[in-house]
Structure formats: C-alpha cells, structure tokens
Amino acid sequence: MNTLHALACMGAILVAGAFVTAHPDTPKPMPAASPIYGVTLPEGYRQWELIAPALEAAPLNEIRTVLGNRIAVDAYRRGAQPFPDGTVLVKLAWKQQPSTAFASATVPGAATTVQVMVKDSKKYAASGSWGYGRFIDGKPADEAQHRTCYACHEARAKGHDDVFTHYAP
C-alpha cells in the first residue's frame, strides 16, 4: 500500500469516526439534575425572554433576573393563571456591587445561583404542580436547599400559582 492510499484510508476512518460521534442518535451525557425534583438547567435558557428583574435586599444583596421559555412568556402576556404545563422560569442571581463606571449604579458582581421552576401538573402534583432546581456553578445544590423551595413558594405566592415574579412589560 502506498503512502497516499494509506492517508486516504486514515482520512476516511477519521471522517467516519467524526460522523459517528456527531450523529444525532449518539447519547449525550445527562445534565446534573436537582435532588427531589430531577430538574436540570434548560438548554439555551440564556437566550430566553426577560420576565422581570428584581433586587433582593440584605442579607442576600442580589440582583436577580427571571427569564421564561415561550410558554411562560405567552402565559404572562395573556395573564393566564394558573400557568400551563410546560412553563419554565429561570432566575439568575448575582451579588450587587457598585459600578466602577457610574457611582450611583449597582451592577452584577459574582454569580450566586441559577434557579429553575418547571410546571408539570402530573409529575409535580405533590408540590403545587412545580418542580424546582437550584444550581451553583452549574451543579445542583444539596437536597436540604431544595426542601425549602415548595414551602416558601406556597406560603408566599399561593395567589399567583406559587410564582413570585410578576411580568414587567
């Protein structure tokens, strides 16, 4: 076998190998899921629409932004309550810090958490139809931190389908 033929064969093997690893049926690694609810970080959530921003006072001192998938945004715009199954809300949170460019401004500092709510009335019937996920540095927080989610939402946002955030048009 000559060198050119050998290189062509190796190229075919590499192309075939690249095709197999990139094939859509090839299983992808499962993202880390939250304890209790099994919620994961939704793919592409950083490109979702803004629902509303918020400031959290002491002791957390956070800037928070809630994003929603298309189902969530449509429900908010229609004023639909309760939210339909398939609604997903993601809250991004950062420590507040003073702006170095504009003295009276507060800007995001270090990221603290990404929190996810998923509406599925069958799967999450025991927790008001919502599943919860709290992630720190992309990894799920421990089970103790997830135990408080439903109780807090039920106690403080019952009249708004257990959702704190109101739409900021």
TrEMBL record:
The keyword Signal applies. Transmembrane segments: none annotated. Pfam families: Cytochrome_P460 (PF16694). Keywords: Signal. The keyword Plastid does not apply. InterPro entries: Cytochrome_P460 (IPR032033), Cytochrome_P460_sp (IPR038142). Residues 1-18 form the signal peptide. It comes from the Bacteria. Residues 42-165 form the Cytochrome P460 domain. This is Cytochrome P460. It comes from Dyella marensis.
